[in-house]
């Protein structure tokens, strides 16, 4: 017998009941001994700063209103426990066949809510030095050229000086958009 792997599923709830469903589901998992099949219940939120009437305050914003994410091993028993939790209207999927969230989608969500670190961006090798002349090859600034004034290899950005309306102006662009003259 092959062991099923645990996957993330999206559960639809009544509007505004996401936290209540999470609490109800956590309680049902414990009381019904389902800890070996239902692992995590998540209401993805992010912190936002709202400025209103000149005052700023932090609020917790639900990323997916009316939805809760559940990490579980899908079988009839675990499906029944989740599906019959008060406030749950159903799983996302076709009929009685819930569709799991892909690994890349759940990774993206976990990074967004701060539960997982993002994969490091690839290092950019910049093949120019301060004083070299460069030209923007693509993007909205295509055709502009001038000498390099600053290089930021960590960001993959290069600043160069160009004449804009008769004034020398520093312009920062991605290195990938430049060509060395």
UniProtKB/TrEMBL annotation:
<dbReference type="GO" id="GO:0005829">
    <property type="term" value="C:cytosol"/>
</dbReference>
<dbReference type="Pfam" id="PF00467">
    <property type="entry name" value="KOW"/>
</dbReference>
<dbReference type="GO" id="GO:0031564">
    <property type="term" value="P:transcription antitermination"/>
</dbReference>
<dbReference type="GO" id="GO:0006353">
    <property type="term" value="P:DNA-templated transcription termination"/>
</dbReference>
<feature type="domain" description="NusG-like N-terminal">
    <location>
        <begin position="5"/>
        <end position="113"/>
    </location>
</feature>
<dbReference type="InterPro" id="IPR006645">
    <property type="entry name" value="NGN-like_dom"/>
</dbReference>
<comment type="function">
    <text>Participates in transcription elongation, termination and antitermination.</text>
</comment>
<keyword id="KW-0806">Transcription termination</keyword>
<feature type="domain" description="KOW">
    <location>
        <begin position="127"/>
        <end position="154"/>
    </location>
</feature>
<dbReference type="GO" id="GO:0032784">
    <property type="term" value="P:regulation of DNA-templated transcription elongation"/>
</dbReference>
<dbReference type="GO" id="GO:0003735">
    <property type="term" value="F:structural constituent of ribosome"/>
</dbReference>
<comment type="similarity">
    <text>Belongs to the NusG family.</text>
</comment>
<dbReference type="InterPro" id="IPR036735">
    <property type="entry name" value="NGN_dom_sf"/>
</dbReference>
<dbReference type="InterPro" id="IPR005825">
    <property type="entry name" value="Ribosomal_uL24_CS"/>
</dbReference>
<keyword id="KW-0889">Transcription antitermination</keyword>
<dbReference type="InterPro" id="IPR047050">
    <property type="entry name" value="NGN"/>
</dbReference>
<dbReference type="InterPro" id="IPR014722">
    <property type="entry name" value="Rib_uL2_dom2"/>
</dbReference>
<keyword id="KW-0804">Transcription</keyword>
<dbReference type="GO" id="GO:0005840">
    <property type="term" value="C:ribosome"/>
</dbReference>
<protein>
    <recommendedName>
        <fullName>Transcription termination/antitermination protein NusG</fullName>
    </recommendedName>
</protein>
<dbReference type="InterPro" id="IPR043425">
    <property type="entry name" value="NusG-like"/>
</dbReference>
<dbReference type="InterPro" id="IPR008991">
    <property type="entry name" value="Translation_prot_SH3-like_sf"/>
</dbReference>
<dbReference type="InterPro" id="IPR005824">
    <property type="entry name" value="KOW"/>
</dbReference>
<keyword id="KW-0805">Transcription regulation</keyword>
<dbReference type="Pfam" id="PF02357">
    <property type="entry name" value="NusG"/>
</dbReference>
<dbReference type="GO" id="GO:0006354">
    <property type="term" value="P:DNA-templated transcription elongation"/>
</dbReference>
<dbReference type="GO" id="GO:0006412">
    <property type="term" value="P:translation"/>
</dbReference>
<dbReference type="InterPro" id="IPR001062">
    <property type="entry name" value="Transcrpt_antiterm_NusG"/>
</dbReference>
